[in-house]
Amino acid sequence: MEYASEMLLKAGRAGLRLAEVPTDYRVRVGESKLSPFGDGWRHVQMLLLLSPHLSLIVPGLVAAVLGLLLCGLSLVAPAGVEIARLRWFPVFLGPMLLILGAQAAFLGSIAAHRSSLTPPALRRWLGFLDRPDAVNRLLGRFLLVALAGVGLDAALLVAWLVDLSGDAVVGVAGLAQALIVIGGSGIATVFAADFSRESLGW
Questions:
Q1: Rounded to whole angstroms, what are the CA distances from 148 to 9, 132, 145, 179?
Q2: Would 41 be classed as within a structural domain?
Q3: Is residue 163 assigned to a domain?
Q4: Number of helices and strands (H, E) in the chain?
Q5: Do 183 and 156 touch, CB atoms closer than 8 A?
Q6: pLDDT tens across 72-131, in order?
Q7: How many domains is the chain partitioned into structurally?
Q8: 38 occurs within a structural domain
Q9: In this structure, are residues 169 and 159 in contact, taking their beta carbons and an 8 Å threshold?
Q10: Contacting residues for 146 by C-beta, under 8 A, at least 6 apart
Q11: Cross-strand bridge partners of residue 88
Q12: Could you give phi then psi for residue 83, rounded to 5 degrees?
């Protein structure tokens, strides 16, 4: 079933002219072999895999930016934000969105690098993945992100030891943990991708 949509996607990306051709339909004789959920999910999965820039990169960047903003809000309002008669703490949601968004954007970039349907502008932007030193560059950048988180944690520890900590450190701690997780998971992902470099085209 998904083959038809794949043809349309690839034809559209190639700039081919699409036309609708009328056809007859005959009611099937016998029991249908279609599985609405199974066939539908396989179809959606194929569409997502063929367009990682829409299924992973864009939502990932939106989530990461929103998470970063919420982390900033937790620094400004460490006691939380009052909504009606409830108190909401953005420090719990911000780091989570930042982590999930960064991971989705990075994994989507790797997938988009190999997808034949990636827009030309994005493919040019991802051209650095074709460089021989791409793995080392990515490892270095993710290591810097993780070290930034460790540095923030170390500063919080010093502040706590000299009795300078307060409510505001909760937001900083959330951001620090998010940076450590992003850096560590990024390094693990790069290593995993490097091990399967043949299938990724690296």
A1: 41, 26, 5, 7
A2: no
A3: yes
A4: 9, 2
A5: no
A6: 888 888 777 787 777 778 888 899 999 999 999 998 898 888 777 788 888 888 888 888
A7: 1
A8: no
A9: yes
A10: 179, 180, 182, 183, 184, 186, 187
A11: 81
A12: -120, 115
